[in-house]
Design goal:
Blueprint: H1 2-8, H2 10-18, H3 26-46, H4 56-62, H5 64-73, H6 79-88, H7 91-102, H8 108-136, H9 138-143, H10 153-159, H11 168-186, H12 192-212, H13 215-232, H14 236-256, H15 258-270, H16 283-300, H17 312-320, H18 327-330, H19 338-367, H20 371-383, H21 393-415
Helix pairs in contact: 2-3, 3-7, 4-7, 5-6, 5-19, 7-21, 8-11, 11-12, 11-13, 11-20, 13-20, 14-15, 16-17, 16-19, 19-20
């Protein structure tokens, strides 16, 4: 039985199953992760494998945020709320632990399989979303050039999906990463048919991300896309032509396409940059209020260790009461920035430690010349400026899973 399982490499099959998480519901994602972890542990000890001490340092480095938040729980007044938040981001520790020590080797062939599995899940999810677009008549507004920053039918469709619960920023993050992977795949192909198929898939995914106009993932994607593509061109003239073409396309798109213009221009010019008053609110001035409170909380509490993961939301909700609007009462707005959330929860010490680890990861990706891993980190780092990516399940699973996979692959290739 054990030999048969070994030949099947059940651990890798389960890891590939985890990679389809975009099309799974929250409770199913948790079940799949638990099965992957438990079976990996059982097989590891049954086959009497040995722990690779080489990954001890990398385990702590890649789990640093979880341990910082865990420590901050000790000085949180709202212990139960903090514990619940830690449970949501447990994958930040679980994936490095299982993938580094208890999972199978991830060579280049297996890495490509995992990336294709994830990308296929994203494409399947995109196909399902397009059926909802069509049935809801969302494209009518697009054809009539009638999309405003307060009324984007595509985002409304995503919020109201029956099968899965999705947020535009996290879904955009996934499909932008898939587009980066497929872009890299284009340059590996020799057959024209294979190139055309991959280019079309990239265009579909990018167009879909543009429809939702989530600023963080889009900005992160284009920064990563430009850097990755520039590294693939050899001559300086081709790089200049490419840059000119990209910035021209971006400029025309943002100023001429209603769904982009509404999010990147109209929303910023509609109101002054101040906290919302009454019902006059947009995602921009809501963020102004949030960031105002972030600075106030930081200045009024322990700057070195923060307020603890359990108390961040309470502090924010208390601070929101100063604004003359009910918008913050309708939804528990978090910091809308991973960096601000880390700052409030763990203080300047925690944020500095987190940034040092991120610098190390960037250095690792750059030195290994792994363009896709570098693009992945850029995409995440930019998105974290605008969204609390690592404190929600969809974001934590995405980052922890693929960061662990990339790191293990890098050192497997190096040892080979």
């Amino acid at each position: 039985m054990i030999k048969a399982v070994s030949r099947l490499d059940l651990r890798f099959i389960l890891l590939a199953t985890v990679c389809i998480f975009p099309i799974l519901k929250f409770n199913v994602i948790s079940i799949v992760i638990i099965l992957f972890s438990l079976i990996s542990i059982i097989i590891f000890f049954t086959q009497k494998e040995k722990l690779n001490s080489f990954f001890v340092k990398h385990f702590f480095l890649n789990s640093i945020l979880f341990f910082l938040l865990l420590i901050s729980l000790a000085y949180s007044y709202n212990f139960d709320f903090g514990l619940n938040k830690l449970q949501q981001v447990l994958s930040l520790m679980v994936f490095p632990l299982i993938i580094f020590f208890l999972s199978t080797k991830i060579d280049q062939r297996r890495l490509n399989i995992l990336l294709w599995v994830f990308t296929s899940a994203c494409l399947l999810l995109t196909a399902y979303i397009y059926t909802e677009f069509i049935s809801s008549g969302a494209f009518t507004a697009l054809l009539n050039n009638d999309i405003k920053f307060w009324n984007n039918p595509f985002r409304e469709v995503l919020y109201s999906l029956k099968y899965v619960q999705l947020h535009p920023s996290y879904y955009s993050l996934w499909i932008c990463f898939s587009a980066l992977f497929l872009t890299q795949e284009v340059f590996k192909q020799e057959k024209l048919q294979a190139i055309i198929i991959r280019v079309l898939l990239v265009l579909i995914l990018v167009f879909t991300a543009l429809l939702f106009s989530s600023r963080g993932p889009l900005l992160g994607f284009f920064v990563a896309f430009i850097i990755v593509l520039l590294s693939l061109f050899k001559s300086s003239s081709k790089k200049l032509i490419f840059l000119a073409l990209v910035f021209t396309v971006i400029g025309v798109s943002v100023t001429q396409m209603s769904f982009l213009k509404s999010r990147f221009i109209d929303e910023f010019t509609a109101q002054e940059f101040r906290p919302p008053v009454g019902n006059a609110h947009t995602s921009t001035n809501i963020r102004v209020g949030i960031y105002t409170c972030v600075l106030q909380i930081f200045n009024n509490n322990n700057k070195f260790i923060g307020v603890g993961i359990g108390d961040v939301q309470n502090e924010l909700d208390s601070c929101y009461q100063q604004f003359h609007t009910k918008v913050y009462e309708e939804s528990n707005y978090n910091t809308h920035s991973s960096y601000f959330n880390i700052l409030l929860a763990t203080g300047t010490i925690g944020l500095i430690m987190f940034l040092v680890v991120w610098f190390y990861q960037f250095k690792l990706a750059y030195n290994s010349e792994n363009k896709l891993y570098l693009g992945f980190l850029i995409l995440i780092a930019v998105s974290m400026l605008f969204e609390n990516i690592l404190i929600r399940m969809h974001g934590a699973v995405f980052y922890a899973l693929f960061n662990s996979i990339f790191v293990k692959n890098l050192f497997i290739n190096k040892s080979s």
